[in-house]
Design the sequence.
C-alpha cells in the first residue's frame, strides 16, 4: 500500500530527534487523532534553516511525511520553507494512499507551526495559524 | 529479508493444514458431481456432505440435521440475526447484543435498526465480560433474540454463554439465544447440548480449513427465515450448490482441532510467556482478561506509540501481527472493542494483537520476544510523547 519511498523514509527516517536551544518549535496534531508531529528548527541570521529535527507519534505515513518535510526545508530560507505544500511532500514520496493524505497535511502544518513560533519570538506579525486541524480523521468529536 | 517468518495473526486467518487439504483433494478433482444429482457422481458427493455433517454434529454434540453449511462465518451471523428478526417480527422487535461484537454481527444489527428493530448493546466490564444477570435484566417481553459472542476476536475474552443462555430462558423462554462462536470453536471445548443456545455460528478458516466455508447450528424447532433462497439445498434453508470440498475440509479441520484440544495447553503456555514478557515492558497494558481468555490471544497496548508503525516494523522483522489502531483501518476509527472496555483512545491506537496457534513454536515466541522490545523502544525514542 505504501510506495518504496514512503517505506524508506519510514524505516530510515531522516532528521529524527530534538535540537537543544532550537530557534523554533512547532507541534501539531493530538494523540486522540493518532498523530502528533513536533518540529525543531535552527535558523541562522540570514533566515536560513540550518538544521531541522522532528519527533512524531503516528503511523508509517506520519513518520515518512515528517521525514520528507524536514528534508525538503533543510537549507532553505524561512520564506522558501513557508511555500512547502502537502502536495509537494506527497509527490516527493511518490504518492500516499488516500486515507493517509492527512499525514502530509499535518507535515505541512508542522513546518508552518514551527515558523509561526519563530515569528512569534521575533515579534513578526503573521497569519500562519489560520489552518488548524482540518478534521481528516474521525477519532475526535471536534468536527462532528 | 528477515531471519525468520513468524505468523502471529491466527485470529485473522489460519494456514490450511496439509491434512485438511489432503481430505479435500478428491472433491476438488475427480468427485466433482453436484450433490443434488441422482447419478453416481452426485451420490458420492452427497455422501461426503452427509458424512461431514455427521462428523461435525458429533464433535459439537448436536444432531446432524441441525448443522447448515454457509459460505462464511459472516453469512452464518447474518443469517441467524436477520433470519430470526424477520421470522419473529410479529412477536417482537427487540434484540440484545453487546458493544464488542464482530462487525458481521454489529453491522447486521445496524441494518435491522434501519428497518425499525430496536437493539440494546450491552456494556462490558474492563475485561470485556458481560454477566448473565446483566443480559437477563435487559430481556423484555418483546425480546426476540439475544446474541453474545462466545469469545472475542480482538481481546480473547470468553463469555459465560451457558449461564447467559440459562438466565435469558428463565426470564423469557421465548427469547432465542444465538452465539457467534467463530473464534471459540476448535480453540476451546464446546458442547452445544450443554450450552443451551438455539443457534451457533462457526468458520473454517479460523481452524486451519480454507476461507469460504462456515456453518450455522440451528436447533431443531427454531423458526428462521432464509437468507439465501434457491434450490432445495440444506433442507431448503440455504440455497446454492453445496461446496463439497470445503465442507469436507471443514469437517476434517474441526476433527483435528477438537482432537488436538490438548494442544491448547501448550498454546496457552506460549501465550502466557508472551503476555508476561511483553507486559514487563514499562508503560504497557494487557487488554482483556488474564483468566478466561482464548488460548492463542495476546492483546497489549504500548503507550506513546502508534500501532500501524509498530506493525510495519514487526513485518520488516518477519513478524505478522495486527492492531486495533485506527491508522491501519480504512475507517480511521480505533477498535470499537478496545474503546468499549475503556481503553483510552490514544492507547487503542498503540495496540498490538498477537494471535498464535498450534503451528506456533517456542522458537517463534523467542523470536517475537527478541524483536518486539527494541522496536517498541525505537518508536518511543521517535515519539514526542515519550520522555523515557
Sequence:
Amino acid at each position: 500500500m505504501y510506495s518504496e519511498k514512503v517505506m524508506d523514509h519510514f524505516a530510515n527516517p531522516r532528521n529524527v530527534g530534538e535540537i537543544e536551544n532550537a530557534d523554533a518549535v512547532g507541534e501539531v496534531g493530538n494523540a486522540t487523532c493518532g498523530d502528533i508531529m513536533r518540529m525543531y528548527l535552527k535558523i541562522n541570521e540570514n533566515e536560513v534553516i540550518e538544521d531541522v529535527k522532528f519527533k512524531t507519534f503516528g503511523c508509517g505515513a506520519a513518520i515518512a511525511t515528517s521525514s520528507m518535510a524536514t528534508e525538503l526545508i533543510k537549507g532553505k530560507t524561512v520564506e522558501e520553507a513557508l511555500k512547502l505544500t502537502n502536495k509537494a511532500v506527497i509527490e516527493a514520496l511518490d504518492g500516499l494512499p488516500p486515507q493517509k493524505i492527512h499525514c502530509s497535511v499535518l507535515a505541512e502544518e508542522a513546518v508552518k507551526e514551527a515558523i509561526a513560533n519563530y515569528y512569534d519570538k521575533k515579534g513578526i506579525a503573521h497569519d500562519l495559524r489560520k489552518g488548524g486541524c482540518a478534521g481528516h480523521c474521525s477519532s475526535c468529536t471536534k468536527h462532528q | 529479508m528477515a531471519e525468520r517468518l513468524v505468523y502471529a495473526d491466527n485470529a485473522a486467518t489460519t494456514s490450511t493444514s496439509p491434512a485438511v487439504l489432503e481430505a479435500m483433494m478428491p472433491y476438488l478433482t475427480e468427485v466433482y458431481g453436484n450433490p443434488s444429482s441422482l447419478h453416481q457422481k452426485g451420490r458420492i458427493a452427497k455422501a461426503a456432505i452427509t458424512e461431514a455433517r455427521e462428523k461435525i454434529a458429533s464433535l459439537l454434540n448436536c444432531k446432524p440435521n441441525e448443522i447448515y453449511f454457509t459460505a462464511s462465518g459472516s453469512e452464518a451471523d447474518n443469517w441467524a440475526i436477520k433470519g430470526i428478526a424477520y421470522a419473529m417480527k410479529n412477536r417482537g422487535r427487540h434484540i440484545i447484543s453487546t458493544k464488542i461484537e464482530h462487525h458481521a454481527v454489529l453491522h447486521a444489527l445496524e441494518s435491522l435498526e434501519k428497518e425499525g428493530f430496536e437493539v440494546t448493546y450491552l456494556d462490558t466490564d474492563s475485561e470485556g465480560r458481560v454477566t448473565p444477570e446483566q443480559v437477563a435484566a435487559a430481556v423484555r417481553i418483546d425480546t426476540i433474540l439475544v446474541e453474545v459472542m462466545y469469545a472475542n476476536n480482538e481481546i480473547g475474552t470468553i463469555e459465560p454463554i451457558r449461564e447467559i443462555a440459562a438466565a435469558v430462558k428463565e426470564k423469557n423462554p421465548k427469547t432465542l439465544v444465538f452465539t457467534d462462536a467463530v473464534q471459540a470453536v476448535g480453540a476451546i471445548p464446546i458442547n452445544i447440548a450443554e450450552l443451551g443456545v438455539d443457534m451457533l455460528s462457526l468458520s473454517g478458516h479460523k481452524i486451519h480449513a480454507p476461507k469460504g466455508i462456515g456453518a450455522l447450528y440451528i436447533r431443531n424447532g427454531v423458526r428462521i427465515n432464509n437468507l439465501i433462497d434457491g434450490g432445495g439445498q440444506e433442507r431448503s434453508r440455504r440455497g446454492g450448490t453445496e461446496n463439497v470440498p470445503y465442507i469436507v475440509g471443514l469437517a476434517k479441520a474441526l476433527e483435528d482441532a477438537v482432537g488436538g484440544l490438548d494442544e491448547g495447553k501448550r498454546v496457552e503456555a506460549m501465550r502466557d510467556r508472551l503476555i508476561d514478557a511483553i507486559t514487563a515492558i514499562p508503560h504497557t497494558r494487557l487488554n482483556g482478561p488474564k483468566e478466561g481468555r482464548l488460548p492463542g490471544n495476546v492483546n497489549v497496548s504500548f503507550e506513546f506509540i502508534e500501532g500501524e508503525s509498530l506493525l510495519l516494523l514487526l513485518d520488516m522483522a518477519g513478524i505478522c501481527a495486527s492492531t486495533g489502531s485506527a491508522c491501519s483501518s480504512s475507517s480511521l476509527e480505533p477498535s470499537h472493542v478496545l474503546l468499549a472496555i475503556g481503553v483510552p483512545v490514544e492507547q487503542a491506537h498503540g495496540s498490538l494483537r498477537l494471535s498464535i496457534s498450534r503451528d506456533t513454536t517456542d522458537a517463534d515466541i523467542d523470536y517475537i520476544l527478541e524483536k518486539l522490545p527494541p522496536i517498541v523502544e525505537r518508536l518511543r525514542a521517535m515519539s514526542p510523547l515519550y520522555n523515557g
